[in-house]
Amino acid sequence: MTLTEEIAKRKTFGIIAHPDAGKTTLTEKMLLFGGAIKTAGAVKSNKIDTATKSDWMEIEKQRGISVATSVMGFEYKGQKINLLDTPGHQDFAEDTYRTLTAVDSVIMVIDCVKGVEIQTEKLMEVCRMRKTPVICFINKLDREGRDPYDLLDEVESKLNIQVRPLSWPISMGKSFKGVYNLYEKQLNLFTPSQRKLSDDRIIIEDLSSEILDDRIGTNLADQLREDVALIDGVYPEFDPKEYLEGSVAPVFFGSAVNNFGIKEMLDTFIKIAPGPKSRQTEQREVVPTEDQFSGFIFKIHANMDPKHRNRIAFLRICSGKFTRNKPYNHVRGTKPLRFSNVTSFMAQDKEIIEEAFPGDIVGLYDTGNLKIGDSITDGENLTFKGIPSFSPEIFREVVNKDAMKTKQLDKGLQQLMEEGVAQLFTFEIGSRKVVGTVGQLQFEVIKFRLKNEYNATADFVPMNLYKACWITSNDKKKLDEFIRSKQRHIAKDKDGKLVFMAESKAWLQMVKDNFPEIEFHYTSEL
Ligand code: G4P
């Protein structure tokens, strides 16, 4: 197969949701439809053995939240689909944001009882910033949820995106009968089944047909006719181009746990979702069909086994063909890297692969050479854009509790930061180390992992800090002057970039007013 044909077969998307909306369930059902797993429940009931499926870390078992982001590949109707799972928990939002840099589109799951929740709003903001095409799946229609029209209004107003329903529910809760596929003009009737893949669909070209009355009763049939007429009147016809530009989100209704409405969405997804897109680097735009290979690391995951300090780096392939054992240019590094242990995330097991193509995510076995944001290429020095660090919200000073284990602590901290678990800032004066995170939970993760994997013990003492701002200025003299006058508040991030550690919002504003030549950035991508 040619490179262009390989690329045309691929779709890489992320699945995002507020916790409990049904993301894990939907993921599992898609794998089931793709034949990647055989029985429903495999992902959940057997989380440890099928760890590669959705949640990898030890800590996940303890806390029951999806900490890690992982990748699952499956084939569906001749296409190769790469699904990237994301942690829904807000404390791991940064992990999710980085994952969104590696996908070409997104499926967003919304609970029909709860409507649009806060985490969904934040994630949507990131999608909007990146103009990522989004499909909404409104889940749990087997429950008495909110009125579908209200839900659509809420999606539009809270997520700030136009919607276009492509399926429509026939009643809900106990009397839920099914969904009518507005895109394909097909009726799919509900036979609740958590084990079987229901495929009881009839094709109704003309909604006035009596078959509809026979199947769902005259009342619901009339209601559906009315709803469809209303939707077609209110919403403009679906234009795939608007979806691809990220300005319209198609909406599907269903019930993930009952395998319902998923096939409608999946069948439409493979028709309309974008394939591997071009990517911006600092140097130029990279087009997937270029012969020269290029890709970037968006996630690093520690080995589950604490005895082995190796890691898996997740590489998104952006152009050309990736080949196992070929020496590649590690753009930030000094020597070429050759990867012999390359895993794909297809089906149930991770397996060694020989080659991969744009859109694919491969796992590279790493002994500590790679960092998040690193580019790997055939030779050209390219730096992919859009993998920023955001200013943390919570800051704590690291206090070593075991002087004999200082080296272990330093190594552990460095490696955890390279994995993107949190950010480390080192004050210029006194070399005090400060860890910054988005949520409280990370400190527990860091503590646990430092002990478990590095045998180091540290305390994290709360600090009164508001934001870490990366600072730049066109005026070198002014920048030096600023650094001298605010020396006690200047730190460096992991890449040695200068950061101003602001203690409060009001104070930051005052400093900004006093130093108009200095630019203060909330993300590291300047
Ligand atoms: P998440 O990954 O987004 O956090 O959600 P997850 O899939 O774990 O689903 C959260 C809960 O919602 C689960 O119930 C799941 O079974 C349920 N759920 C998912 N889809 C549907 C649906 O279509 N209808 C209904 N009624 N429930 C649904 P749980 O009690 O937390 O777990 P479990 O014991 O059922 O596994």
Automatic annotation (TrEMBL):
Tell me yes or no: is Signal among this UniProt entry's keywords: no
Which family is it part of?
Belongs to the TRAFAC class translation factor GTPase superfamily. Classic translation factor GTPase family. PrfC subfamily.
What is the organism field in this record? Cyclobacterium marinum (strain ATCC 25205 / DSM 745 / LMG 13164 / NCIMB 1802)
Q: Which domain of life is it from?
A: Bacteria
Q: Which UniProt keywords apply?
A: Cytoplasm, GTP-binding, Nucleotide-binding, Protein biosynthesis
Q: What is this protein called?
A: Peptide chain release factor 3
InterPro entries given in the database record: EF-G-like_DII, EFG_III/V, G_TR_CS, P-loop_NTPase, PrfC, RF3_C, RF3_dom_3_sf, RF3_GTP-bd
- SUPFAM superfamilies listed in its UniProt record: EF-G C-terminal domain-like (SSF54980), P-loop containing nucleoside triphosphate hydrolases (SSF52540), Translation proteins (SSF50447)
A single GO BP annotation from the record? regulation of translational termination
Q: Which GO terms describe its molecular function?
A: GTP binding; GTPase activity; translation release factor activity, codon nonspecific; translation release factor activity, codon specific
Q: What is its main location?
A: cytoplasm
Which stretch is the leader sequence? none
Q: Name one Pfam family in it.
A: GTP_EFTU
Query: In which residues is GTP bound?
Result: D85, T86, P87, G88, H89, N139, K140, L141, D142
Q: Where in the cell is it found?
A: Cytoplasm
